[in-house]
Amino acid sequence: MVEHEGQGELTKLVCFLLQGQEYAADIFFVKESLKMRPITRVALTPSWLAGIINLRGDVVAVIDLSLFLGMPKTEISSNTRIVIATHQGRRAGLLCDALCDLRNHDLTTLQPSPSTLDEAAASILAGVLTLENDKPLRVLDLGALFESRELASFRRGDSA
Length: 160
Description:
Blueprint: E1 10-18, E2 21-26, E3 30-35, E4 49-55, E5 58-64, H1 65-68, E6 81-87, E7 90-96, E8 98-99, E9 103-106, H2 119-124, E10 125-130, E11 136-140, H3 142-147
Parallel strand pairs: 2-11, 5-7
Antiparallel strand pairs: 1-2, 1-8, 1-9, 3-6, 4-5, 6-7, 10-11
């Protein structure tokens, strides 16, 4: 996560749905969101790597976050979006079921991730916020995603 100075500072979060659960990422790491477009599957890659897209002449890898987090594959619909995220000059598309509203939250109130999560999910989850309706908002650490062991073999170039 981006370090923010001072206690109580609000951070703008890009929120999206995965399998009916709301997730968020610091807007600092999010460059844009795209309507669904053709994704070309690449042979001999992990199932969570949905494939690649052409983004204004650049090839960008698209990660199915649901599969990466151990949930069922994302079902493509008219609401499906690809969130383009960046970290240290690298970028990837993150496949999600739908976008939600942007939210402003004080990340000093972030609660630790549940201890019941598997290692891959826990390693990229910064923590959980409680929304007004008492529902959890799972906040991803996109820096940790880009630095994860699972993405290590894709570190050549800036596609993922």
